Amino acid sequence: MTRRFLPVATMTLLLVAVWYAGALWLNAPQAEEALVRAAKPWGWTDLLAQAYGMKRPILPTPDQVAVELWNSLTGTAPTSPRNLLFHAWVTAEAALTGLAMGLALGTLLAVGIVHTRTLEYSLLPWVIASQTIPILAIAPMIVVILGNLGLTGLLPKAVICMYLCFFPITVGMVKGLRAADPLWLDLMRTYSAGGLRSFWSLRLPASLPFLFASLKVSVAISVVGAIVGELPTGGQAGLGARLLSGSYYGQTVQIWSALVMASLLSVLLIGVVRAVELALLGKAGAR
Q1: Model pLDDT for residues 143-165, shown as the tens digit of each residue
Q2: Of 195, 101, 212, 221, whose CA–CA distance to 154 is shortest?
Q3: Does pTM top 0.90 for this prediction?
Q4: For residues 219 and 165, what is the distance between their CA atoms, to the nearest angstrom?
Q5: Residue 145 and residue 61: Cα distance in Å, rounded?
Q6: Cβ-proximal residues to 244 (8 Å cutoff; 6+ apart), any chain
Q7: Do 169 and 106 touch, CB atoms closer than 8 A?
Q8: Could you tell me the maximum CA-CA distance found in the chain, to the nearest angstrom?
Q9: I need a labelling partner for 162 at 20 to 30 A (CA). Which of 22, 52, 107, 201 fits?
């Protein structure tokens, strides 16, 4: 336990130290200017206090972000728009919906590519090419097109998430469906098992480790997609909306607290995927 905890604690302390040093470096010019305007004698301790205590710093310190998170999470009800849990839930809803859509699309494409050689040569290059389009360019287009069709709210954000996460799922499932032991496939043919039976009994179980590896990547990408999807919609809810409002009013502490909340949300969702993986693969006897 100690061997696992010590490297994580060491790296965390190192990152916090670098964060404080960066905050001092970026905030020092404004802090020095404020001290000079005050026309009072000042020293290094005054400069440190001013740089680490600014209300609108260039880079807030970890304790400022922690205080903002704590006040947001405990100062209001979870259903209040002032609570980051409310915004995190809105983002998580879009991310999980898009992940489910991406899982369905990616699995369907992977099955078609594995079982139909023509699709592998005709469809797979387009799947790869789709990821060369920057999401910041395509997200407003998706929002506008679906908005003209009367589809607003959750669906445009979910489609953006699906666009981002279907690719790793497709690639992982293609690799996984082809990972079945050729000897076992020959054995299935010996017993006159059809393609559907071979898929459910052999190919699909063999693909589960690859699927969950792709899902861990996809769930984090899906959170990013949900946040990006919230930016062009001008919505009042979601971590993306929180970031946007913070940038409008120069509230850098609010921006960083929303970023930290997004990171915590991604870690939580990855943990859920990991728990499901252990449950399913444990029952299947995988190691």
Answers
A1: 888 878 877 778 888 888 898 88
A2: 101
A3: no
A4: 7
A5: 41
A6: 230, 231, 234
A7: yes
A8: 91
A9: 201
- When pLDDT is averaged across residues 43-69 and rounded to a whole number, the result is 85
Count, residues in the chain: 287
Residue 38: partners with Cβ closer than 8 Å, 6 or more residues away: none
Given a contact cutoff of 8 angstroms between Cβ atoms, the answer to whether 59 and 28 are in contact is no
In whole angstroms, give the CA distance from residue 216 to residue 208. 12
Assess whether pLDDT exceeds 50 at residue 287: no
Q: Lowest-confidence range among 15-29, 164-178, 231-245?
A: 231-245
Separation between Cα atoms, residue 236 and residue 1, nearest integer Å: 43
Helix or strand holding residue 182 (H, E)? helix 182-190
With b for 16 or more beta-carbon neighbours within 10 A and e for fewer, the 211-229 pattern comes to: bbbbbbbbbbbbbbbbbbb
End-to-end C-alpha distance for the chain, whole angstroms? 21
Token pair belonging to 201 = 């009994």
Mean pLDDT, the chain, as a whole number? Answer: 82
Helix 2-38 / helix 62-75 crossing angle, nearest 10 deg: 100
Tokens for 73, please give them. 């999470």
